[in-house]
Amino acid sequence: MPPPDVVLSAMATRHCKRAFLDRAVPRALLAEVLLAAGQAPSTRNTQLWQATAVSGGALEALVAALCAAFDGGEPPHLEYPGRPPDLGADVERRARDAGSGVLRARGAAVSDATARRALLRDNLHFYGAPVALVCHLPGTAVAGTFLEMGFFLQNVMLGLVAHGLGSCPQASVAGYADILRKELAIGTDRLIVCTLAVGYPDEAAPVNRFVPQRAGLEEFTQWHGW
């Protein structure tokens, strides 16, 4: 087993990467991470999560289709509720700060509508990552199934960190679920949960040095019996 400080460091330092090097990710390496991530817990060992890995020409075709829809004015539509209707003031503030922080790290003003649109479009390019994972569940998925997908996805992201890779989970790309299904032959009986941009991060890019402020321990933990 790795030392506790190594595991905790990976958990504490992982954050979304939005700029990647032009360096291929070996399929064998990605397979190793996915196989380990599959040890995530699930109810009665059902393991309902699935991941479709895309790279090379298939990824280029997918990006072209996504950008054509975006440029044509097709709005994204997530097939499940992505967040509660009322997040509360503190949570809304964190969300705004994260969004504005990414824009500023890209050298853009928060009020710059053109820059915001460029960020959305870059998202559909998977931020230049050489690999995209499309994560999906059965169309009958319920809240508990999404919880299990979260276990799996976090395992994937931490496994990537262990190999010097970075990632960025993207619910917004799942807003074009029909395009993902068509381009990747994913059945209509599958619910697209999110995509994950995967690659070797460009640590020289300012956007990759932006880390949003996290809630303090006292904000999300209650103690009894100590």
TrEMBL record:
UniProt xrefs under Gene3D superfamilies: NADH Oxidase
Recorded GO MF terms: oxidoreductase activity
UniProt KW keywords: Flavoprotein, FMN, Oxidoreductase
Matching InterPro entries: Nitroreductase (IPR029479), Nitroreductase-like (IPR000415)
Co-factor requirement: FMN
Nitroreductase domain ranges (all copies): 12-200
Domain of life assignment: Bacteria
PANTHER family: NAD(P)H NITROREDUCTASE YDGI-RELATED, NITROREDUCTASE
Family classification: Belongs to the nitroreductase family.
The name this protein goes by in its record: Nitroreductase domain-containing protein
Organism: Streptomyces gilvosporeus
